[in-house]
Amino acid sequence: MERSTACALAACLAAGVVLYRVCRLSSTAGAKDTGAAEVANGVVGLIGNTPLVRINSLSDATGCEILGKAEFLNPGGSSKDRIALYVIERAEQEGLLVPHTNSCIFEGTSGSTGISLAMVARAKGYLCHIVMPSDQAIEKSQLLERHGATVERVAPCSIVDKNNFVNVARRLAQEYRSDKGRGYFVDQFENPMNFEAHYRTTGPEILRQTHGRVDAFVHGSGTGGTIAGVTWFLKQRVPGVRSYLADPQGSGLANKVNHGVMFADTEREGTRRRQQVDTLVEGVGLNRLTRNFARLLPQGGASMLDGAVSVSDADAVRMSRWLMANDGLFVGSSASINCVAALSIARSLGPGHTIVTILADSGQRHLTKFWNDAAMTDLGHSVVAPGSLDEFAQLLSLQGSTKP
């Protein structure tokens, strides 16, 4: 009797160990297998599997579960780590990049993708050359330099101009010469691997972390890779899930989604102040369709998006201060517009829904602009946290239907 009891206990313990290992492995899915799931294989092994955090103040006020994917906890500080790793490893598999051969990775970026590429390049044995608009926060250039990248800041101009930051990066990659290495242009705006990276990693993580119980996904679009990849993945697996674009002022994407026309009222002739998009929000918003974003608006097919929310700069600033004051979340400008849009969607859908958005990066790389109170005040924006979320009501503008 005692022997059978001992055998049963041993079997239970063994089953428990197996279950524990399965849970550990599933929680580190996508990481390199080092033989011990708890140990990451270098800095690239830290990329992905970021936590999903309940944004308490927004959730409690709306009766919804508003969840933020904490992408700022990636080792490079943003969601762009995913595309950097995915694109470089795919290039290695195809023989386009070979480590330690003086090969150089080139990219045109507003900053975050460049930082991620510089980090992964250094870890894998490549050089990195980043071209960025000169109106982006200076700390992004400083971070790039600390990661060992060559940084070139150019005047902001249209994508049709040969001196646009993306076009300059492409040209430099083509002109690069080395005895053994080659220049490799990432082309994040048009490269379908951007979409694939989020379809294969970010989407599955959200599905697993929510146990498939997600009613809406809300995100902005810079290159379009994240919103397209996650939207496609979730819509193929979660019946009835909705997807919404969060768009900053000056961007024409919201109008394209809601009305089929690429136009932003703030871009009227004679009113525009900046060359790209008239907003202080960095990294999101465009007045053209990238190859990645276009996947959401297939020709001859139904839109994958259920609507778009236009978010003013004023609301973006106010949301960032609200989140710090009420949740202790120190987020960048794109995360702020995502949260304004998520709040708007939650109010429209009503209590009881689960809404997921992306906290792409922290406020640490926005200290000289978006998180500079003097600079924001000079632009006419309040930097005092609102006393209530009701103060956003006059400024929120939901465009397109959010009803079933």
TrEMBL record:
It holds the Pfam family PALP. Its EC number is 2.5.1.47. Residues 46-361 form the Tryptophan synthase beta chain-like PALP domain. GO terms for molecular function: cysteine synthase activity. It is found in: Mitochondrion outer membrane. InterPro entries: Cys_Synth/Cystath_Beta-Synth, TrpB-like_PALP, TrpB-like_PALP_sf. Residues 1-20 form the signal peptide. One of its GO terms (cellular component) is mitochondrial outer membrane. The keyword Membrane applies. It catalyses: O-acetyl-L-serine + hydrogen sulfide = L-cysteine + acetate. Its cofactor is pyridoxal 5'-phosphate. It is a single-pass membrane protein. Keywords: Membrane, Mitochondrion, Mitochondrion outer membrane, Pyridoxal phosphate, Signal, Transferase, Transmembrane, Transmembrane helix. Belongs to the cysteine synthase/cystathionine beta-synthase family. This is cysteine synthase. It comes from Coemansia spiralis. The gene is cys12.
